[in-house]
Design brief:
580 residues; alpha/beta; 5-stranded parallel sheet; 39% helix; globular
């Protein structure tokens, strides 16, 4: 069957699965589901309701909500009438929302709770286009003149009266039509609107097909944690799961991730590297309270697991690995729900030491790589051949090569249509069909790709050496008492760092004790780094980088230019007479 649109793909799967559960959310401490058939009816009703309120083919509609069934219903409903979904993060400020609403020319915005709705209502007062605000939850707040505020249920109920017309535009949707405009996180300034077509996203599903075939494509339960506004989750957490006929469970939040794993027992889930770091630290803390025998068995199991990955076990070690080692691995797996076929790491680079720790314990972590501009998947480790220090080979349908300066270039149906209202930047980014990723990489003879740094973020020291900051930063944050770190040293003789200590581990210490503790941690981190990557000096700050203070993007990447603006003088002092 030839592909036409993501909407037809969804309706086909809904017809196949009918009364099977599809979307799960937790309300009143109980998990409740919508079946595929119920979801399909809601999509058709909501689509008709949007059409009745003036949304036409080509119109942009912003969604600002936490992950929940209504998010998916809204996304499918918008595109069913030929509209374009514009996902936006719940962590965005009023100014961020205003920029996206104005830049995209959105006709409407769909949001969830009172706080978000108030923020968006304020943002609409400065836009020329957005005159409709739809709230999923009950709204009691600011109502600017000229803004029509309706509830999700009102739109849905209105649409039920004309539901028979809901699929009128379906056959007119073409594979090359824009499905969504996803705004990049903006690590270096204003975000750009990436136009992704139905075919772009579907090509990613084809690219992941052979990986999923190995993991297991039937009877999947997927735990959704990464925001659906992120291109990774929008493709892998929504449309890939639609294609697989999976059950999607919406995580209650990062702090509930571990408990949700136990409740749901998912077969597949994705997480950002910070989640893996938290689980790693929790396991380590658990082991500290165990007796010497349990500690020894656990440490031995990890050691054998690592040896099995990197070399070969002898006969005695093999017996150990498959005896008490199996017991340890099963115990850890049970803490993650017991049925996990694979953990997918997305959003940022995973520290290889953290990744190898989980692999040693029998937990498959598939680290991949992608960009919003590539829908987003470019490469991924294969389940049967994981090299966690790499991002795997290019997936099916994607070509990858290196430019003369080492920049990774990719080509395929996954490459975006372009940047919304920005032809100049589009032409600078896509040349002769090749997407210029901006990432510096190496490609091994067997095709495995290693990302070594960001082209614009490469540090060139005073000796002319190119240094990717992500490696020393990962080595620092691997240490137990370092929560966050950013290194700097452009046109300087050595690297320096801004370090945020772990609050729980340092709250009872004075400044001198914290400095001495961090100093020792930096020494440990330096043991794994080359001479030019070593951290020579550092400053300690107590306020973490966060989305609230603008120092992290919504996908938890550090905004280097913002951090440098804030702490630039203190970093400069590390190279002068004031340095300690």
């Amino acid at each position: 069957m030839s592909f036409q649109s993501l909407n037809k793909l969804f309706l086909d799967r809904a017809e196949e699965n009918l009364e099977k559960p599809f979307l799960w959310s937790k309300t009143d401490k109980e998990w409740k589901s919508l079946t595929w058939q119920e979801t399909s009816k809601n999509v058709k009703a909501f689509s008709s309701g949007l059409k009745a309120h003036g949304i036409k083919p080509g119109d942009r509609v912003v969604i600002v909500s936490e992950n929940r069934p209504e998010w998916i219903v809204a996304d499918l409903a918008i595109t069913m009438i030929g509209g374009i979904t514009v996902p936006a993060y719940t962590t965005n400020t009023e100014d961020d929302h205003h920029y996206i609403l104005e830049h995209s020319g959105a006709k409407a915005v769909i949001t969830s709770n009172n706080i978000l709705a108030n923020r968006l209502a304020l943002a609409t007062t400065r836009t020329k286009y957005c005159k409709l605000l739809i709230t999923i939850d009950n709204y009691n707040g600011f109502e600017p003149e000229g803004l029509n505020i309706l509830s999700y249920n009102e739109i849905n109920n209105f649409g039920k009266n004309t539901i028979e017309n809901s699929t009128d535009h379906l056959d007119k949707i073409q594979p090359d039509d824009t499905s969504c405009i996803i705004y990049t996180s903006g690590t270096g300034g204003r975000p750009k609107g990436v136009m992704l077509t139905h075919k772009n996203i579907y090509s990613n599903l084809l690219g992941a097909a052979d990986l999923i075939e190995i993991i297991g494509k039937d009877n999947n339960k997927y735990l959704s944690l990464i925001p659906l506004s992120h291109s990774y989750e929008h493709t892998a957490g929504l449309y890939l799961q639609v294609d697989l006929g999976s059950e999607i469970y919406f995580c209650e939040g990062p702090e509930k991730f571990s408990s949700n794993l136990l409740e749901i027992s998912p077969t597949l889930t994705t997480a950002v590297p910070r989640i893996f770091e938290v689980i790693h630290d929790r396991i380590k803390i658990q082991m500290k309270s165990k007796n010497i025998i349990i500690k020894t068995i656990f440490n031995r199991s990890v050691k054998l697991g690592l040896k099995k990955i990197f070399s070969k076990l002898n006969i005695i070690e093999t017996i150990e690995y498959y005896s008490y080692g199996t017991l340890i691995r099963n115990k850890i797996n049970n803490q993650l729900g017991g049925k996990l076929r694979a953990f997918v790491s997305g959003g940022a680079a995973l520290n290889p030491e953290i990744g190898n720790f989980f692999l040693a314990l029998g937990i498959k972590i598939l680290q991949g790589y992608g960009q919003t501009e590539s829908s987003p998947l470019i490469s991924a480790n294969r389940p049967e051949k994981i090299r966690i220090d790499t991002v795997g080979p290019a997936v099916k349908g994607v070509e990858a090569k290196l430019g003369e300066d080492g920049e990774l270039l990719v080509k395929g149906d996954c490459v975006m249509k372009g940047y919304w209202e920005d032809e100049k930047t589009t032409n600078e980014t896509i040349k002769d069909g090749w997407l210029h990723t901006g990432d510096i990489a190496t490609i091994a003879d067997d095709g495995f790709i290693t990302i070594t740094g960001r082209k614009k973020e490469l540090i060139v020291n005073s000796g002319g050496d190119n240094i990717a900051p992500t490696r020393p930063e990962a080595s620092l944050t691997f240490q137990e008492t370092i929560f966050q770190a950013m290194v700097e040293g452009d046109r300087r003789p050595y690297l320096v760092a801004i370090i945020v200590p772990e609050e729980e581990k340092t709250s009872k210490l004075n400044d001198t004790e914290i400095h001495d503790l961090i100093s020792n941690e930096v020494k440990k981190a330096n043991e794994n780094l080359s001479s030019i990557e070593k951290i020579r000096k550092f400053i300690i700050i107590r306020d973490p980088f966060s989305t609230d203070n603008g120092l992290l993007t919504p996908t938890m990447k550090i905004r280097r230019h913002k951090i440098k603006e804030l702490y630039g003088e203190e970093l400069d002092d590390l190279y002068g007479s004031k340095a300690k």
